[in-house]
Specification:
Helix 2 (about 65-75) packs parallel to helix 4 (about 105-110), helix 8 packs parallel to helix 10 and helix 11 crosses helix 13. The chain is built from 13 helices and 13 strands. The protein is of the alpha+beta class and about 375 residues long. It has helices at about 25-30, 65-75, 80-90, 105-110, 125-135, 145-150, 155-165, 240-255, 260-270, 275-280, 295-305, 310-315, 325-335; strands spanning about 5-10, 15-20, 45-50, 115-120, 170, 175, 200, 210, 225-230, 240, 290, 335-340, 340-345. The chain has a four-stranded antiparallel beta sheet. A three-stranded antiparallel beta sheet has the order 2-1-3. A three-stranded antiparallel beta sheet has the order 4-6-5, with helices on one face. Among the domains are: about 5-115, no CATH class; about 285-355, Arc Repressor Mutant, subunit A (Orthogonal Bundle), CATH 1.10.10.
Length: about 375
């Protein structure tokens, strides 16, 4: 999937960079790693927009992250011509050019591309005037000899058409609206909620299935790609469908038991990028300790000292200790790692990066 926006997400206690559009689990995961306070909404800022240059100037920053993701999901589905029409529709909006447009309105504009005509390559009044005259939109010029036709004031003709139609020029061509805009925003479900599946898998024919498969149903022996996963670090990985189904059952159980954040932290700490290894780690979570409250080396150091010293001695010592460096030293000695979910330490030995598979398995998808 192409990416539309590269954004920075922020909260009082966290910040992360992220790309949109995002799958439901990826969006939930990003918000989880911001450590939001109760009632706090994530802030966002667009760092880069490849699919729609200049989009930043149109966006009202008061929109929500789900709204921005919904806009990105629509934009990524459009081709260059569709994006040009959206650009044209933003230019047609009333008010000063460049004035921020609320995200709900931008979403409606993005879904209204079939309400417009686009004349590609026509980007000036002169080009528009010649196009109209050559294509029968100016009946008075139909029977003119070529020499007389060449003397027409195409700039004036084009300007008259543009002003009468309310059209605009974009980088790709001339956009003219011929129908009422669609009202789509109010029909969208933009709530942040967990999907019904643990894994959404894509099959070789492009179809998608939700995993785990209902109990009692046979799981076909075919390759599949993980498109959306309760552990988003595994998105994009491939395996046999039966293997992904087995992993999905593990993920569902971990979610029920409240162990999913720990599992995601272990995956991140070990650098796991293989479904088979992810299954192994799901069975070995008791080999790791996990503290979601420790997010920085300073906190690791403070937590360690609190376990060693009385509170009075701790209060006297803390102002005189380089907690950041001490925390780094502790992690180096015990092999612990900080992740976006918290602190992970293998209970026997340091956290080891998992070994990549060497069986050469690759999934063939269209």
């Amino acid at each position: 999937m192409r990416k539309v926006f590269h954004v920075e997400l922020t909260s009082e206690d966290g910040c992360t960079e992220f790309t949109l559009p995002a799958t439901p689990y990826a969006l939930l995961d990003a918000v989880e790693r911001l450590w939001l306070a109760e009632g706090e909404a994530p802030g966002w800022e667009i760092l880069q927009s490849d699919a729609f240059p200049g989009i930043s100037m149109y966006l009202d920053r008061r929109g929500t992250l789900p709204e921005l993701n919904a806009l990105a999901q629509r934009l990524v589905a459009l081709d260059e011509q569709g994006l040009a029409i959206v650009e044209g529709l933003t230019l047609m909006e009333p008010g000063p050019q460049g004035e921020p447009i609320p995200l709900p309105r931008l979403i409606d504009l993005a879904y209204s591309t079939d309400c417009c005509h686009l004349v590609e390559g026509v980007v000036t009044d002169a080009q528009l005037g010649r196009f109209c005259a050559e294509n029968g939109f100016v009946p008075e010029t139909d029977d003119l000899p070529d020499a007389a036709f060449a003397l027409l004031d195409f700039v004036r003709i084009g300007k008259q058409f543009r002003e009468a139609e309310g059209g605009v020029f974009t980088r790709v061509g001339y956009v003219q609206r011929h129908d009422e805009l669609k009202q789509v925003y109010n029909t969208l479900d933009l709530s942040l909620k967990k999907p019904d599946y643990a894994i959404l898998a894509e099959l070789p024919d492009g179809s998608r299935v939700e995993l785990p498969t209902p109990m009692g149903e046979t799981v076909p022996d075919e390759p599949a790609r993980c498109v959306d996963c309760a552990a988003p670090v595994l998105n994009g990985l491939t395996a046999m469908r039966s293997t992904l189904d087995q992993l999905a059952r593990h993920l569902a159980e971990l979610e029920t038991d409240g162990e999913l954040p720990k599992y995601k932290a272990v995956l991140a700490a070990t650098g796991c990028d293989d479904v088979a290894q992810a299954l192994v780690l799901a069975d070995k979570l008791d080999h790791y300790s996990f503290d979601p409250e420790l997010r920085e080396p300073d906190e690791v150091a403070s937590g360690c000292l609190r376990g060693l010293l009385p509170e009075a001695d701790l209060a006297a010592l803390l102002p005189n200790v380089n907690l950041h460096r001490y925390g780094q030293m502790i992690m180096e000695q015990c092999g612990g790692k900080l992740t976006g979910y918290g602190y992970v330490r293998q209970t026997v030995g340091p956290v080891q990066d998992v070994e990549p598979r060497t069986d050469g398995f690759e999934m063939e998808l269209n």
